[in-house]
Structures are given as structure tokens and as C-alpha cells.
Amino acid sequence: MRSAFDAIVVGAGPAGSVTALHLARRGVRVLLVDRCDFPREKACGDGLTPRSVDILRALGIACACSGPPVVGIRLWDLRDGSRTGHGFRATARGTTHGLVVSRDVLDDQICAGARAAGATFWPHTTVMAPLRRDDGAVCGIEARRDGRTIAVRAPITLVADGAIGRLGRELRGRADSGSDLELAVRQYARGVSTIDRFEFFLPLVVERRVIPGYGWVFPAGDRVNIGAAFYDPTPVRTPNMLRRVYAEFLRGLRDIPRFSALEATSPLIGAPLRVGLDPPRCAGEGWTLVGDAAGVVNPFTGEGIAYALESGELAAAAAWEALSQGHESASHGYRRGLTRRYPPTWPSVACCRV
Ligand SMILES: Cc1cc2nc3c(=O)[nH]c(=O)nc-3n(C[C@H](O)[C@H](O)[C@H](O)COP(=O)(O)OP(=O)(O)OC[C@H]3O[C@@H](n4cnc5c(N)ncnc54)[C@H](O)[C@@H]3O)c2cc1C
Question: Which of helix, strand or coil describes residue 218?
């Protein structure tokens, strides 16, 4: 029997929703599933660089078309409070500003964009495993929905289940190494007078050891988004380590007069980011990995949203090409697209920082 869908997209974060949006706009019958419904909270700095703003505006995502502009970056030295910075240069489309948009709003709007383009969206659907043919090729998903286990088949499955999603883990086919994951935490706070830049802070120090990473304060309307991202240099990643690094960062931050009155207004939440993009491992027979699942995160900055959006577009183009030519492997086109787009130095940068 012919499947009701040409493609299944797992995960409706920026990567998955934009993949579904591009596929649906090309007339592909696409099913988008997520274990959550939207809007939902996601640990993030909420920072959209001009690169992200460009892509989102071109897609017609409303939250990227207004809001107080973030005009550049400022880098602070936590040891003496000195700083340097620069304004953003114009992108190819002429965008010269970033934005801060909380992820409950951003992800909901991209997902709504996918639905408006014709994608079918199933919330509260947790994917448990890929379905495989006898030759090992992926031909759909097994998922839990409405208390039942269901199987859904499609020629191509695009996996955007985030940094540590179970489907991505199975398809990558190897355990994570120390350099694959960066850790990040964030919370909201008040008590900072108006800022119009992405403020970054170095170095992060715990027990006199410099930790590879940075802290940030991003303007978010009448509050700020404050957080820290770093590679955990200890072999065992512990929640305690996260809290210690963050607490030390806050102590240093409050020594700078402009940030001395910071007062947290939300709990501290965190999540890992997957770095170390390796294009050959990002696709196989019947499947592709997109966004964080593929490690398409800038290892210098931890920026992931622009790359989630870009990899979604590349994956959708490769899947559409494969489907329209009547074969089920989008892997070659997608790997080629990733290799052309992103620097081959990314994986080694991630290794060097551990
Ligand atoms: C604290 C922190 C701060 C950050 N700050 C920034 C920033 O300021 N700017 C920036 O550009 N990037 C930032 N990033 C990175 C950015 O958040 C990610 O790169 C981005 O979310 C990747 O999008 P994604 O769609 O690949 O994954 P996600 O956004 O993680 O989405 C994955 C989706 O998959 C769903 N899912 C997972 N497993 C399953 C399953 N089994 N079945 C069904 N659904 C499933 C999840 O519910 C989720 O909706 C930050 C990350 C962290 C952790």
C-alpha cells in the first residue's frame, strides 16, 4: 500500500519545522512530529544573529520582522571589566541587526509556518525507533501516540530531534566523544539598564582553572537572557559542574557596575549542544540528520539556530530531489551540501577546545 506521506520529519524545533516547511512548499506530503505541543519552552540564549534574521524574514516568520534591534557584539574581560566590540556588518540581503526572540514564540511560529505550507503536524508523538527494511534502509518510524505504539512509513525520514535525541543517537551509530557536546545553561533576569548588543564575557574560571566557554547577557525586552556555554573539561559531566561554572560567572559579572543589580526571575535551565559536524555521518539510506542532531552548530560561538535553518533547507532540497527522481536516498546531495557550506575545520575546533 502506498504511504500517506512522502517524508517524515522528527522534531519540530527550528531544524525540523523549517525542513517540513520547505518540503511542503515544494508539494511534498510531509508529516512533522514532536513529542511536545507548541508553544513550549526551550533552554536557549534566544539570540538571533543577522544570519538567522535574514533567513527567517525571507520565510515570512513574523517574530523576525520586528522587535528592538541588536546592533552588535560586545566582549567583556571579567578579570578587569574592560571591553571591546563591533557593530554587525550587513549580510548579503542587507540585514545589519540581530534580535532576541524567546523560543516559545520562535519555534511555535516556524511550526505554524510549516502547517500553513501544508505539512501535517502531530504533537505529543514520541518517536521510539526507526523502521528498517531487510537491507537496513530506514523506511519510517515507530512512535508512541495517544497511548499506542504506531508505525508510520515514508520513503525518507529527516531526523531533527536535537542534540541528544534517541533517533539521532541510533542513526549516528557511535557513542558521543568528549568533544561532541557543549553544555549551556540560561535564565532570565532583571536589573540591567537597557542594552542593545549581545554581551559576551570571558574567561570562565572555576577553582582557578579557565574553562573553555563564555558567559552572555542578551537584551530581551524588559528583562535579559543570561547564561553560560562551555565544554566540560572533566570526564564526568555533572549538573554540579554546570552550576559551579554558572555561579562563578555570576559572581564575576556582578563585579561590573552595569550588571551589579542583576536579579534572577526564572529557574536556571540547561541543555547540551551538539558540535563537530561530520557530513559523511549525517545521512544514510532513507534518512538524514538535521540541525543539532547533525552537529551543525558553530563550535566557536555555540550559535545553532541559523545553522538549524540552513541545514533544514539543504536537507529538504536533497530530499525533494531524491523523491522527484524516484529514489529514496537523499544522502549524497545532502552530504555534498553540508560539505560545501560549512568549514572543514569545525570538527577539529571542537576537539581543540576540550
Ligand atoms: C542554553 C542554550 C543557549 C543557546 N543559545 C543560542 C542562541 O542564543 N542562539 C542560537 O543561535 N543558538 C543557541 N543555542 C543553540 C540552539 O538552541 C540549537 O542549536 C537549536 O535549538 C537547534 O535546533 P534543532 O531544531 O536542531 O533542535 P531542538 O531545538 O532541540 O528541537 C528538537 C525537537 O525535537 C523534539 N524531539 C526530541 N526527541 C524526540 C522524539 N523522540 N520524538 C519526537 N520529538 C522529539 C523535541 O521536543 C524538540 O522540539 C543555545 C543552546 C542552549 C542549550
Answer: strand
